[in-house]
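Supplementary Text 2. Reproducibility record for the structural model of the 290-residue chain.

All settings were left at their defaults, and a single model was retained for analysis rather than an ensemble. We include the record here because the model underlies the residue-level annotations in Supplementary Table 4.
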Amino acid sequence: MAKTLDCALCILRQSLEAARFATPDESLQKEILEKTMRTSLEMGLDYDPPMMGTILHRIVRETTGDPDPYYKEKRRHNRLALERIDVVRRWIADSTDRFETAVRLAIAGNSIDLALGRLDQKAVDEAIRKAVDQPVSGDFGELRGVIDDASTILYLTDNAGEIVYDRLFVELLTSEDYGKKVTVAVRGKPILNDALLEDAEEAGITEVAPTIGNGGDGLGTIFSLTSPEFNELFASADLVLAKGLANYETLGVGPREITPKKIAFLFKAKCPFIAARCGAKLGDLVVRLQ
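Retained model, structure tokens:
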């Protein structure tokens, strides 16, 4: 991913946010910030931002002794999304284009991202409501086409809470109307508020499609950290549907060590630099094929 000086500042802010999630002890928060600043300087500004973020979040976990600083927030976001699932499912069922509505809502769920700081639940609910009519940067027709052509789909999730909306999209893909063989992948180990197997089970997506952890704790998909099982699934899939900014950063720009037949990115453009790079506006729902 192309780097900017702002990437370093964003990663340091994330580290401090994670420290505050993990501990109320200001001395520990200070220690984490000092460690992450030193590590950032050692790695240099040319270091890949997703890997840099991965390393700095490890520092947070190791320093606080908390293996999953976002655990409580993930439970909360799953619960809040599940409270709304019947209403959202009806939106899809009653819409004139169930496919487009399901995609819109899955992308809108990407608003639940604690990498950008603490969330206002009202803002998340508003993003979900607006998604039905919000302009999209991308082509639903192309996305529908590559899904129609695919027999096997690997669906890469992003955040807890968001995974509830992914479930509704996967339900549609595996229904009689589409009949796709979908495997869902979550993170293998805690990082930020990214979904793990526990979140997949809580969201009910494990009841819809086989679900695996990718084996790693990386931001996005970093093949040096993911498991051989995941890497094999990625390589053999007819289509990979990749959710979130970190997956776009790690898979959508530059060479990949492993390449599926096709890959489609679904995310909300929350970073001005990524938005500009992919030709979207900040806040857009984005569909990009590669």
